[in-house]
Amino acid sequence: MCAWLLMGTPALGQTQTAAVPSTAAVVLERLPHGLHLQGRVALLADPTGALTLEQVRQPVHAASWLYPVQLLRAHGPTVWWLRIRVAQPSPGGHWLLELPTTALRDVTFYGPLTPAGERLAGPLTTGLIHPFASRVLGSERAVFPVALPQPGTYTLYLRVQSSIPQHMTPTLWDARDHHLSRQHQRLFDGFIYGMLLTLLAAMVALHLALRDPVFLAFGFMAGFAGLSLMSFNGHAAQYLWPASPWWIEHSYVIFPALWLAACAAFARSFLHIQGKHRLANGFFLGFVFLCALALLLGVLGYTVWAQHLNEAVALSGSVCLTAIAARQWQRGYGPARWYLAGSLLPFMAVGTVVAVNWGWSEQLFWLHNSLEIGIVAQSLVFAAALSARIRFVWQQNTQLKQRSMHLAQAALTDTLTGLSNRRGLDEMGNALLRRPGRHALVLFDLDRFKPINDTLGHEAGDWVLREIGHRLRLHSRERDLVARLGGDEFVVLISQCPARPELDAVVERLRAALDAPIDYGAQCLQVSASAGVALTPDDGSELYSLLRAADLAMYSAKAGLRGQVFAADAPAGPNRTTLLQLA
């Protein structure tokens, strides 16, 4: 998101320039990191772009040449002429003059020229508006050979034009050292691309597995970050569209605009902004609109305006997204702190560039590679942030699932006794009845319960009901279902019940448990229960039919002596017998 900070920061090094003429030639010497020419290059502005080499060498322009002490920066539409005087101490020098950027629109190299004005080689032209084949030695940057056959003083000229602000302070290399440095740089770039490609593949796989849009947004962010870096480093021009100057030039603003839009989509999804905060959502919509506008400007050829818009969106967007992330963290969204950490890394990279530009550090490696390092470090932190987000969402889902299960269980549970209620009996009872085997439903209705409620109050009645529920559960098997229908009616659904004699014993055990005295404070309470029994498949196979049959049998039991158990299949009439005769 903050990449354009890295591109714009070097301008800080131009707050002061010195107009001190210098005619001292640069003595060529082999250095491991090249001979950096800061402060050794004469600069001439050509606002119209009409001057030729012969004209800039005329005495009339001698006073117009300046020697800035800071890094040189090209920006359109002005054409800049660079003049470098070099001294070759020994014969047979093979040097390379390298410009530090790949984004110069048009560059022409003249030289070397002898003191007499003789050109030892023809002009060489390259830049964004030319095919990649125009780049000498197949280098990503503008590199020109400087062959000096004899000792002496020579002059080199560069005509540079750039539509977007870029560095243009050159470096002179021994050809052998430049080749070694280029190999190291390619290895480093390959590592960076490999990291981003790995992140892209991982995010696509996670999106396909989890169907979470945040992974897709992060994948787009990594992909467009890689394409932007390839454009900045010249590898897109070298490998993707070497014969298309249009793509070579416009990719510098097109892919960054897409990258910024992907950053916004990732931030919106990661920080859980969707539909919750109207102001934040408005910001994201405006952000994406500006990215689309920058993309359109780039496609239409207004690369300068597109670049400036990209820079403005990146700067303002970084500040706003940091504020939104901080607000989300304050509201308890823990993963936002990872987003904040990732957002700070590009600013740290900017600090290293500033340190180099102001002379606090001489590590030019950071000047050229802070962008890549900042992006990859940020991507890795964001990957860790996604891991934290997955844990956070998983914890939230687990808690939500537990609450849902608790609410679902509560909806199926009688709050007084802890047994299943009528709804619980309906859901779990029908599932139990679908199991293979024979099942029995026993319906209990308490006798002598109403006098307890009327004389001792509802507290005593509730105590009795809780105790009855406890006893039924205690004397039932784990696979059986015990429920309270309401009032003083209870149901025991016996799964895969035994044969009739054993079933009689089970029902007797339950009845005896209910008949036992109940201690309530200093008092001993006594209730009994009348019961009706229904069996599958004789009395039905569905819960409703079994309840109806057991209910009829239970009322037959209550019509005679209380404390009896009647089977639904007992004969009707005054001589109706009991399944178990209980005195």
UniProtKB/TrEMBL annotation:
The chain crosses the membrane at residues 190-209, 214-232, 252-271, 283-302, 308-326, 338-361, 373-394. Residues 437-570 form the GGDEF domain. Pfam families: 7TMR-DISM_7TM, 7TMR-DISMED2, GGDEF. It comes from the Bacteria. InterPro entries: 7TMR_DISM_rcpt_extracell_dom1, 7TMR_DISM_rcpt_extracell_dom2, DGC-Regulatory_Protein, GGDEF_dom, Nucleotide_cyclase, Rev_trsase/Diguanyl_cyclase. Keywords: Membrane, Transmembrane, Transmembrane helix. This is GGDEF domain protein. It comes from Serpentinimonas maccroryi.
